[in-house]
Amino acid sequence: MANETSFCHVFLSFRGETRDKFACFLYEALKSQGFVAFMDKSDIRIGDEVDLTIKEGIKNSMSAMIIFSQNYAYSTWCLDELVLILKRKKNSRYFIIPIFYEVTIYSLGNYGLALEKHRARHSDKVQKWREALVEVGNILGDHVEGLQSTFIQNVVKLFREKLAAKFPECRLPIPKPLHLQTRDKVVVYTANVTHGRFANTLIRGLLINNRNVAIEERNC
């Protein structure tokens, strides 16, 4: 079952492959700082539709952290969550922090291939998913590489700053020393710098022939 709450500071969206490697550490870090985070605790997906608990979690959250992984776009659940999150963001102070986990610039073309694979069963949704990925691609930044524990600390700090800026009337929990036990070396990407080649590659990989994009980027 997912965490059920009528309010949360942040909704965590991720594919199950990152749960034990990254998502749970991020969740615990946020929780240790007094933030209320919504994290789906179930690996079981029944049917094609996002369940009501997830929809309510997004609706009652103030922000979202989206953890993009190599196989993220192969999950119709993740893509539906992304659409709901972007819908929630419109005409509100809601904000998104995208995080790319163990995804290189060269593998972004796979997202376009994943969408094409979905076309047989979900032809009515593919364009909407593509537009959602392009939209979130426009808020991506440069990459950060280093220790996972350090990165999570920086994400929590960034989250606190953005929450304070977007919701100045919100009484934030008092910061505490953050001690993490995580797996060490990873490569992650986050929307914390300026737009650049990373975001452009994601968008191109979704709009153009994806096989050609991957080849072009490797030959740059």
TrEMBL record:
<keyword id="KW-0520">NAD</keyword>
<dbReference type="Pfam" id="PF01582">
    <property type="entry name" value="TIR"/>
</dbReference>
<keyword id="KW-0378">Hydrolase</keyword>
<dbReference type="InterPro" id="IPR000157">
    <property type="entry name" value="TIR_dom"/>
</dbReference>
<protein>
    <recommendedName>
        <fullName>ADP-ribosyl cyclase/cyclic ADP-ribose hydrolase</fullName>
        <ecNumber>3.2.2.6</ecNumber>
    </recommendedName>
</protein>
<dbReference type="InterPro" id="IPR035897">
    <property type="entry name" value="Toll_tir_struct_dom_sf"/>
</dbReference>
<feature type="domain" description="TIR">
    <location>
        <begin position="6"/>
        <end position="163"/>
    </location>
</feature>
<dbReference type="GO" id="GO:0007165">
    <property type="term" value="P:signal transduction"/>
</dbReference>
<dbReference type="GO" id="GO:0061809">
    <property type="term" value="F:NAD+ nucleosidase activity, cyclic ADP-ribose generating"/>
</dbReference>
